[in-house]
Amino acid sequence: MTDLAGRHVLVTGAASGIGEATCTRLVRAGAAVALVDRDAERLAIVCDALVAAGGRVAALAVDVGDEDAVRTAVDQAVGALGPLRGVVTSAGIFDPGDLQRLGDVELAVFERTLRVNLVGTFLVVKHALPHLVEHGGAVVTVASTAGLRGHGSGSGYTASKGGVVALTRLLAEQYGPRNVRANCICPGATDTPMTGGAFREGELAARVRRGIPLGRVADPHEIGAVACFLLSDEASYVNGQILAVDGGATVR
After folding, report:
1. What CATH number did the domain enclosing 81 receive?
2. Which residues contact 183 (CB under 8 A, 6 or more apart)?
3. Which residue, 156, 163, 196, 200, could crosslink 110 as a Cys pair with Cβ 3.0–4.6 Å?
4. Rounded to whole angstroms, how far apart are CA atoms 205 and 41?
5. Dist CA 175 CA 191 (whole Å)
6. pLDDT tens digits for 208-251?
7. Where are the beta strands (DSSP E) in 62-172?
8. Quick check: is 90 in a domain?
9. What is the pTM of this model?
10. Which of helix, strand or coil describes residue 50?
11. Which residues form the catalytic set?
12. What does R_g of the chain's alpha carbons equal in angstroms?
């Protein structure tokens, strides 16, 4: 188990899916965790479960696309849990209106998707950076294999995730000299609430599995495990890397 004892990590999208799984693994590794999500009801449930498991956590209901709210949340997290040493930006959406060809996607859908997936990542990292620079730390962004090789549909989603990849590389270059590492995880097909069980059964699920050398989709905890590794001292010389955690799908 990765050792993150005593470190404070802020995780966005913490109320479900990859974010929730990452928070669970962080608590098991000894970290204090600030849980950030706009779903206050679900966030409270996750927070209570982690407290019951012995975790030291704080729950902050925040829309990551709102700069004032993000700035306040980072300050509150530091006040509640101490110096910030890590950030995981897993908040993300896939708007149903994005499920068509680019020429048919409404501008509002495109902009809404970028607001959460890309602008939200930028804002959280921006306001966390002064703390990470002061104490040393790591940023783990969460993009998607869609940002590496495109997607059959999802103009806003694909563009936003490609933006996260590029932003992470820039961050690694600019802040590596200031003792802040930045790496990006690009999950492939993962069984989360956002995918609504689509990868569990039926022809779509079978087709997806056929495209993955390991023959299955990921569990969110498998993505969370990689995030924890990248936050830890075991990854102390890993910076600016884009890791496809996809069962080998992108080799095809």
Report:
1. 3.40.50.720
2. 138, 139, 140, 141, 168, 172, 230, 235, 238, 239, 240, 241, 242, 243
3. 156
4. 30
5. 33
6. 889 899 999 999 999 999 999 999 999 999 999 999 999 999 99
7. 84-89, 137-142
8. yes
9. 0.95
10. helix
11. 157
12. 17
